[in-house]
């Protein structure tokens, strides 16, 4: 497998380089080539397989020529000790793909754990410490922190917007210690992301530090996210209906991962891009004009992204062709009031407790099904466990939400963060003191 930059498709780099470098020097985004085609037989065979088995089968198709089979099998199984079940809300019609059964209770565990496993595999071959920088709007940080905690040869620095993540999300980033440290930025997620991007092009920093990213600009976060789309397809294919996925989106890594496996042959009839008021992509789908905005704070904070990094990947996968994009993806967006009403309605209608992000996905799916009038099997990605947003969910539903043990125990740990203003130089100065 080789990787090319969306800005210069002619030249390619190795798997290891794309993994550690994260972003090409020309500031494009890496894409895998050639994408293997998974035929009909592949999908029939995986119907009853675990996420880890599916992950291994696809990994082998991708990296079988570079990583020894037994090592690849072991690292995939270590990365996925959990499943991603499809739960029917209305049998054969509307369902959710629960992606929150991993350690941080959000779908980002899938990408972060696989990437950590690959980095740990490749870093055994070198003696230089890898410094991972990651900006988080809420859930990435927790998944990355847990995925990389105690991985030898890797140090992780997480940047998060102060006061804009939930209390339990913050605990996930700030209480592990060891090789994980958190910078509490007095600004927005976009500020955090801008600082990280600047660090990658800072010649002075890169001269003596090996910097790497765990954001969804890193293609190795996205590749494993394709595995659960395949797993979901396997779980619903017996209904014999066209499959539509609805993805509650922010930085659009999740939807790009879906579009990538679609290109590998997964029979996806359509995607729904569901967002909160940060609706640049639904607006693009409507008007044909892509106009990034400053991010707006909402109750679905993990999707508060005004300028999604992965839009370029989606555009690239659809050949920079608006019509092709529109044929494959429909956009819907909801404000906070609609999101609250949606959470309540989903609970009343299906007895299903959803976090605000998941509710937006389900609403997008329902609205798409109403508008398109197609008889499809709709699968909405459930991106986080509702208890990660306990105060909000309880207020909206009017009854208590159970917190899984592994999250509940965090509440008692004490937070440790490094507060900084939203300025690159301030970050650089504090960061250099820690390495
Ligand atoms: C990160 C996140 C999203 C958005 O995913 P993208 O891949 O950035 O589009 C949605 N929901 C939750 C709970 C998240 O943590």
From TrEMBL:
Assigned EC number: 4.2.3.1
Domain Threonine synthase N-terminal: 2-80
Pathway(s) per entry: Amino-acid biosynthesis; L-threonine biosynthesis; L-threonine from L-aspartate: step 5/5
InterPro entries, alphabetized: Ser/Thr_deHydtase_PyrdxlP-BS, Thr_synth_N, Thr_synth_N_sf, Thr_synthase-like, Threonine_Synthase, TrpB-like_PALP, TrpB-like_PALP_sf
Main enzyme class: lyase
Record-linked Gene3D superfamilies: 3.40.50.1100, Threonine synthase, N-terminal domain (3.90.1380.10)
GO biological process: threonine biosynthetic process
Annotated positions of the N6-(pyridoxal phosphate)lysine modification: 108
Domain Tryptophan synthase beta chain-like PALP: 97-368
Pfam families given in the database record: PALP, Thr_synth_N
Family matches, as PROSITE patterns: DEHYDRATASE_SER_THR (PS00165)
GO MF annotations, alphabetized: pyridoxal phosphate binding; threonine synthase activity
Cofactor or coenzyme needed: pyridoxal 5'-phosphate
Keywords: Amino-acid biosynthesis, Lyase, Pyridoxal phosphate, Threonine biosynthesis
Reactions that this protein is recorded to catalyse: O-phospho-L-homoserine + H2O = L-threonine + phosphate
Family label: Belongs to the threonine synthase family.
Protein name (Swiss-Prot/TrEMBL): Threonine synthase
């Amino acid at each position: 497998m080789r990787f090319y930059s969306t800005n210069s498709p002619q030249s390619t780099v190795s798997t290891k380089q794309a993994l550690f470098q994260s972003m090409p020097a020309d500031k494009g985004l890496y894409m895998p080539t050639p994408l293997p085609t998974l035929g009909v037989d592949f999908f029939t065979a995986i119907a009853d397989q675990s996420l880890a088995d599916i992950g291994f089968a696809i990994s082998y198709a991708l990296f079988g020529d570079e990583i020894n089979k037994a090592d690849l099998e072991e690292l995939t199984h270590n990365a996925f000790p959990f499943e991603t079940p499809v739960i029917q809300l209305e049998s054969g019609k509307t369902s959710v793909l629960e992606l929150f059964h991993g350690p941080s209770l959000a779908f980002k565990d899938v990408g972060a754990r696989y990437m950590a496993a690959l980095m740990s595999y490749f870093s055994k071959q070198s003696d230089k410490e890898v410094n991972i920088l990651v900006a988080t709007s809420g859930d990435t940080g927790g998944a990355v922190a847990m995925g990389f905690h105690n991985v030898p040869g890797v140090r992780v620095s997480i940047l998060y917007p102060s006061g804009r993540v939930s209390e339990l999300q913050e605990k996930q980033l700030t209480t592990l210690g060891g090789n994980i440290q958190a910078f509490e930025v007095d600004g927005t997620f976009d500020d955090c992301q801008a600082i990280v991007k600047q660090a990658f092009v800072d010649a002075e920093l890169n001269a003596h530090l090996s910097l790497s990213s765990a954001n969804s600009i890193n293609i190795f976060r996205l590749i494993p996210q394709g595995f659960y789309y395949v797993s979901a397809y396997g779980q619903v294919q017996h209904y014999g209906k066209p499959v539509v996925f609805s993805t509650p989106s922010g930085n659009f890594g999740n939807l790009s991962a879906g579009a990538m496996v679609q290109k590998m042959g997964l029979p996806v009839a359509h995607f729904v891009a569901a967002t909160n008021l940060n609706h640049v992509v639904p607006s693009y789908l409507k008007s044909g004009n892509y106009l990034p905005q400053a991010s707006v704070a909402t109750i679905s904070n993990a999707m508060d992204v005004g300028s999604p990094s992965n839009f370029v990947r989606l555009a690239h996968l659809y050949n920079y062709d608006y019509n092709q994009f529109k044929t494959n993806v429909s956009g819907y967006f909801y404000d906070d009031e609609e999101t609250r009403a949606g959470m309540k309605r989903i609970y009343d209608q299906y007895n299903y407790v959803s976090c605000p992000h998941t509710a937006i996905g389900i609403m997008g799916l329902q609205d798409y099904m109403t508008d398109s009038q197609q008889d499809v099997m709709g699968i909405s990605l459930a991106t986080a466990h509702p208890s990660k947003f306990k105060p909000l969910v309880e207020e909206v539903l009017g009854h208590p939400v159970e917190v899984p043990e592994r999250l509940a125990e965090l509440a008692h740990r004490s937070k440790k963060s490094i507060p900084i203003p939203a300025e690159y130089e301030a970050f650089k100065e504090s960061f250099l003191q820690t390495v």
